[in-house]
Amino acid sequence: MPSLFDWAGGGTAFARLINAFYDRVEGDELLSPLFPGGVSSEHREHVTTWWIEVFGGPADYTADLGGYEAMLHHHLELGITKEQRLRFVELMSRAADDADLPSDPEFRAALIGYLEWGTRLAMHNSQPGAAVTTHAPVPRWGWGVAPPYTP
């Protein structure tokens, strides 16, 4: 069974996704304040590298960019609100359409599953004084309960 990374179309598909997402974020009144001055190309590349690893591609975020601990550090004390979390999920779902990612229900269910899990964790970790898990592996997301149907 292919990884979600392979099913989506590899690294170029995830680069399209993340760029489409941040293009939407830069014009969004709720999320753009988290990125004063816009979203840098370096930030986009780092987040793309994270998503590639999470969805089954090379573990370059862990090897080169600090793994889970680095991602956690980027979210500490941001104070992400429930509304911002939900908007993140919405814009990422729309960006998946913009980026022409696979639209089959199994892939999209896995994508939304990760978005729900990841944004809820990020929101928790971003609260001032939150008790956070400081060391963990980068998650490796899979098909879950609905892999692609094979007759």
Describe this structure in words.
The protein has 151 residues and is mainly alpha-helical. Helices cover 59% and strands 0% of the residues. The chain is built from seven helices and no strands. α2 crosses α3. It is globular and about 50 Å long.
Secondary structure layout:
Elements: H1 4-8, H2 11-26, H3 41-54, H4 60-65, H5 67-75, H6 82-98, H7 105-126
Helix pairs in contact: 2-3, 2-6, 6-7
Over the alpha carbons, how many angstroms does the gyration radius reach?
15 Å
Count of helix runs: 7
Beta-strand residue fraction: under 5%
Measured distance between first and last alpha carbons:
13 Å
**Outline type:** globular
Helix content: 55-70%
Order of helices and strands: HHHHHHH
